[in-house]
């Protein structure tokens, strides 16, 4: 029967021109392949190992093959080498080198947008579908046939006749199923019909379109067929459509369509075979799905096959050497001869041993002892180079004396499982100084200890690089449990691992003073701790980069459970921090000054703080958090995810999910600035007291650009926000599904706090006592061009808004302009006022939703205690001290409100809260919309477009009754290549309309026009800071007075 397989391959070989050789050179004409998920420990590859044992058992006596596992750069080098040596003809290959896990013409952000929110599949799943649809055959060039066997597939029966059939066909599949993904059916089939129509094609294997697809977790394919121009044209059309990313088109329907369009019916065959599929827990018998199987039965297949099969290379080598050593000509990689009768005990070819990472010859010195290594280092002159090869599995005990490397370039490498240097907690391992360079590869550093700093090594004005290294059980009694650096550089890469390190004071792993470090390429840092600050990092005046799937897990400290930034710059990309803890502030990160950028899919998960800032604690500096996530964070006191007591935080296209605290379930801010933009979200945040989403008692908050605060909960008040002092602007965003057990289903405001909600939605908020949407016990609340929908209170009053004030003089100020209240529950009062709050209501619309009786809106009881008269056009009319709606008809639906009659309007007087702020008689076009109110506070709205990065301006107002600033801002430098810097020219104080001019600096209108901003001043000196984010609205904040200017884009 084996002759059938041999003949099939021979026939296939002569059918077409040979393909270009693969980079590594195929040792066989058949390649089996899969795409692995990756992982940082060998336990993550147990399923893959079991699958390959099944594969070896199924094919060993039939045919030779190469086994290739593609990955996305997330398999550490040590694991690659270990598994490659253990399994038959096995190797890893990076799919990214063949165009995988990229988005082609689509940008990364566009790809993320196309991955619809409701899908449970992450972006990586779409990358997998893209690779397995269009790139796999490109990556396997040089082979004639390819067999896909996913890492969760166990082949239990593969008859020789079936394999021979597969290797004489264009495509052979093990199972045909019905497409279950409804969106693929709804979008791919119509696209396919349009493609066939425009290309004037009919299927060669009808029907098409079809909901029956070839299941692609196993198939055998002739690679030359997939390089046919017609097939490539079809795949390119699929790729250009964007359907893989927009609609999650899988590789199975795409491959099926290609085969039914262009395949020959006699060359696409259904195989008689058996296999088990772990992901769906089902069995395929005779090429047909029989029944779903329990996990225990699936695992029993593996246990049985593992017991039967001895699949490691070492075992294979031993068998091969004993039985075939003399007849194979000494070539361990030669394919076994194909005979007509399979041997009773298979003797697979021996796999050639993996060479060392850097061979010992060719310039490398081999040393047999630590004494020889020390002598070689000492004999190297300053500025000289020494390259040393340490034999694999060699162990060297340092004997209480560190290895000193000074003024030379030293490289230590090993191979296989690597060499080990062990300090036995008697000393650190290396001292690198005086401009030296140290390079380590496949070296393990164990049990280092230092009283001062750097348990594994201290680096002084030098550089160190590590690749595929292991550092375990290093500790320091002062700083840097592993590394202590001063004026130096460090690179850790190649899947290195750092485990179980500790510092008694500062930085459990890495202490950096005036230094730079890069930690990348799947490095794992686990179980590190510091008694005081920085469970992993302590950065002072340096630069630290974490990238490319680096993982920090299980770190802890008193402050900054993982990363402490006192000064300098930290950047983190495509990396993860898991399960970090601190007993005080900053469960994962604490910042004092400097700059930190978190971007490109970073994740902070399960971070906890004993006091404040479950994930991040800021007392200064600038934190930019872009396209990343904070998940399942908590703090005992405040700021379940982030606490801000100074500095600037920018949340850009990011999310905070499942955070908890006593107050400020997600964020607490007492000083500084918080900017949320680009559809950032805060979801399922919980406060056991107040401020389920945010607790604001100082500083400034700007939430702009389709941001969402959703599913917030407060056991007491202010489910989404609790504002005491400071200023909050929420514009073009949403607050939805928030619940407070007492007051303020969405917002609670008191003290001198100021909140402006513009062009936004507040919906489905609930309060247990009063203020279904808003509760104001002080401060200023301004609602403009927004919608409040379906807000309710379980109490008898304040279903939408409750205001309570016992202050002497002016109470809370409520300014509501162009608001649509959409009401579902209309029982009780909608507005409640107690005390001396001031209301200004303008252009208010009430829209009854289903279940809301419109008559309730017209009853005096709907507005309890609302005694302040309105100014200008009003939709409310005073009747017996209460307020009622004025509707134009009795028809159902929304009330179409008439303007207040002029006779009534003339009798109204305005009670302005702060008339001394500005001269009411002053004609100011910027404030013209508010002239009818007669209440001119320093507020204004003006269209503005600014194209720049960030602008900081300080203006000192003259101490006169009424002045304005005339100033022109001129930008210095390029606004995108460098931070924008502006200067004020020709500033003067005049008694006329003044302009603060911002020139356009980018795009098609660069240098042409200017936008003018009116600045209205107060009677006393006032310092103002203006902050502008690129292409967004901005606000002018008064540092010494709650006055506020708001300019809308």
TrEMBL record:
One of its GO terms (biological process) is protein N-linked glycosylation. Keywords: Transferase. GO terms for cellular component: Golgi apparatus; membrane. The keyword Methyltransferase does not apply. Residues 339-359 have a biased composition (Pro residues). The keyword Transferase applies. Residues 313-338 have a biased composition (Low complexity). One of its GO terms (molecular function) is alpha-1,2-mannosyltransferase activity. It holds the Pfam family Glyco_transf_15. SUPFAM superfamilies: Nucleotide-diphospho-sugar transferases, Pectin lyase-like. Residues 313-362 are annotated as: Disordered. InterPro entries: Glyco_trans_15 (IPR002685), Nucleotide-diphossugar_trans (IPR029044), Pectin_lyase_fold/virulence (IPR011050). PANTHER family: ALPHA-1,2 MANNOSYLTRANSFERASE KTR1. Belongs to the glycosyltransferase 15 family. This is Protein xylosyltransferase. It comes from Prymnesium parvum.
């Amino acid at each position: 029967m084996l002759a059938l397989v041999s003949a099939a391959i021979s026939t296939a070989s002569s059918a077409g021109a040979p393909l270009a050789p693969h980079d590594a050179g195929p040792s066989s004409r058949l390649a089996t392949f899969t795409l692995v998920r990756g992982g940082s420990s060998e336990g993550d590859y147990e399923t893959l190992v079991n699958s390959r044992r099944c594969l070896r058992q199924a094919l060993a006596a039939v045919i030779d093959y190469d086994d290739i596992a593609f990955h996305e750069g997330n398999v550490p080098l040590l694991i690659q080498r270990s598994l490659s040596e253990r399994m038959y003809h096995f190797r890893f290959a990076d799919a990214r080198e063949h165009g995988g896990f990229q988005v082609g013409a689509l940008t990364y952000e566009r790809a993320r947008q196309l991955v619809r929110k409701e899908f449970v599949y992450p972006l990586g799943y779409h990358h997998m579908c893209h690779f397995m649809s269009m790139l796999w055959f490109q990556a396997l060039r040089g082979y004639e046939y390819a067999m896909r066997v996913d890492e969760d597939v166990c082949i239990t029966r593969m008859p020789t006749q079936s394999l021979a059939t597969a290797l004489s066909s264009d495509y052979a599949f093990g199972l045909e199923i019905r497409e279950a993904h409804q969106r693929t059916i709804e979008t791919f089939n119509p696209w396919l019909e349009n493609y066939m129509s425009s290309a004037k094609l009919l299927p060669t294997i009808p029907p098409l379109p079809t909901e029956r697809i070839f299941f692609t977790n196993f198939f055998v394919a002739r690679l030359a067929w997939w390089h046919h121009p017609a097939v490539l044209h079809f795949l390119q059309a699929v790729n250009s459509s964007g359907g893989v990313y927009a609609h999650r088109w899988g590789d199975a329907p795409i491959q099926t369509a290609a085969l039914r369009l262009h395949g020959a019916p006699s060359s696409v065959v259904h195989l008689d075979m058996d296999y088990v599929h772990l992901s769906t827990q089902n069995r395929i018998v005779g090429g047909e799905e029989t029944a779903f199987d329990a996990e225990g039965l699936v695992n029993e297949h593996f246990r049985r096959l593992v017991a039967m099969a001895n699949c490691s290379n070492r075992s294979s080598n031993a068998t091969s050497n004993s039985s075939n050593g003399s007849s194979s000509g000494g070539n361990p990689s030669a394919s076994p001869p194909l005979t007509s009768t399979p041997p009773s005990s298979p003797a697979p070819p021996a796999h050639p041993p993996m060479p060392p990472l850097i061979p010992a010859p060719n310039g490398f010195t081999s040393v047999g002892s630590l004494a020889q290594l020390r002598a070689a280092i000492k004999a190297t002159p300053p500025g000289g180079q020494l390259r040393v090869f340490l034999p694999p599995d060699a162990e060297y005990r340092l004997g209480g004396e560190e290895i000193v490397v000074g003024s030379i370039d030293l490289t230590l490498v090993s191979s296989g499982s690597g060499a080990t240097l062990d300090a036995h907690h008697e000393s650190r391992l290396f001292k690198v100084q005086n401009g030296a360079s140290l390079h380590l590869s496949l070296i393990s550093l164990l049990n280092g200890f230092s009283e001062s700093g750097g348990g594994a090594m201290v680096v002084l004005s030098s550089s160190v690089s590590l690749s595929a290294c292991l550092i375990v059980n290093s500790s320091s009694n002062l700083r840097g449990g592993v590394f202590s650096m001063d004026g130096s550089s460090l690179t850790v890469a190649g899947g290195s691992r750092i485990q179980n390190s500790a510092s008694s004071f500062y930085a459990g792993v890495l202490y950096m003073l005036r230094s730079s470090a890069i930690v990348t390429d799947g490095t794992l840092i686990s179980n590190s701790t510091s008694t005081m600050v920085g469970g992993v990092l302590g950065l002072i005046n340096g630069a630290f980069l974490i990238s490319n799937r680096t993982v920090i897990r299980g770190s802890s400290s008193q402050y900054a459970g993982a990363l402490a930034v006192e000064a300098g710059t930290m950047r983190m990309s495509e990396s993860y921090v898991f399960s970090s803890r601190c007993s005080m502030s900053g469960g994962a990160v604490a910042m004092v000054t400097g700059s930190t950028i978190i971007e490109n899919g970073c994740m902070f998960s399960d971070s906890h703080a004993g006091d404040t800032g479950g994930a991040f604690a800021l007392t200064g500096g600038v934190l930019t958090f872009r396209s990343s996530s904070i998940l399942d964070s908590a703090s005992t006191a405040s700021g379940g995810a982030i606490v801000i007591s100074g500095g600037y935080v920018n949340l850009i296209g990011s999310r905070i999910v499942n955070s908890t605290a006593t107050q400020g379930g997600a964020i607490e801010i007492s000083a500084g600035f918080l900017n949320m933009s680009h559809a950032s979200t805060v979801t399922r945040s919980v406060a056991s007291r107040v401020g389920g989403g945010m607790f604001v008692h100082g500083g400034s908050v700007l939430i702009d650009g389709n941001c969402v605060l959703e599913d917030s909960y407060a056991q007491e008040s202010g489910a989404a926000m609790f504002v005491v002092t400071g200023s909050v602007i929420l514009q073009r965003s949403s607050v939805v599904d928030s619940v407070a057990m007492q007051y303020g289903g969405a917002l609670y405001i008191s003290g001198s706090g100021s909140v402006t909600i513009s062009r936004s939605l507040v919906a489905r908020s609930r309060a247990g006592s009063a203020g279904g949407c808003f509760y104001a016990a002080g401060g200023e609340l301004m609602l403009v061009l927004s919608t409040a929908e379906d807000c309710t209170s379980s109490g008898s009053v304040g279903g939408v808004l409750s205001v309570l004030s016992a202050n002497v003089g002016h109470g809370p100020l409520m300014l509501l302009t162009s608001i649509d209240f959409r009401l579902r529950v209309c029982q009780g009062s909608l507005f409640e006022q107690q005390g001396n709050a001031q209301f200004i209501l303008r252009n208010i619309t009430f829209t009854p939703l289903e279940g809301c009786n419109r008559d309730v809106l017209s009853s005096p009881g709907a507005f309890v205690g609302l005694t302040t008269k309105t100014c200008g056009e009003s939709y409310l009319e005073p009747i017996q001290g209460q307020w009622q709606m004025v509707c134009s008809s009795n028809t159902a639906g929304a009330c179409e409100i008439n303007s207040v009659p002029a006779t009534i309007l003339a009798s109204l007087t305005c009670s302005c809260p702060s008339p001394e702020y500005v001269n009411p008689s002053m004609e100011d076009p910027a404030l013209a919309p508010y002239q009818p109110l007669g209440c001119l506070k320093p507020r204004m709205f003006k269209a503005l477009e600014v194209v720049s990065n960030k602008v900081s301006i300080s203006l000192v107002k003259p101490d006169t009754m009424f002045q304005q600033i005339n100033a022109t801002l001129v930008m210095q430098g390029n606004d995108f290549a460098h931070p924008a810097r502006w200067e004020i020219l020709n500033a003067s104080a005049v008694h006329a309309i003044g302009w603060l001019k911002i020139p356009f600096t980018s795009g098609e209108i660069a240098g042409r026009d200017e936008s003018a901003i009116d600045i209205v001043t107060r009677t006393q000196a006032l310092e103002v800071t203006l902050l502008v984010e690129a292409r967004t609205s901005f606000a002018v904040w008064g540092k010494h007075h709650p006055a506020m200017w708001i300019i809308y884009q």
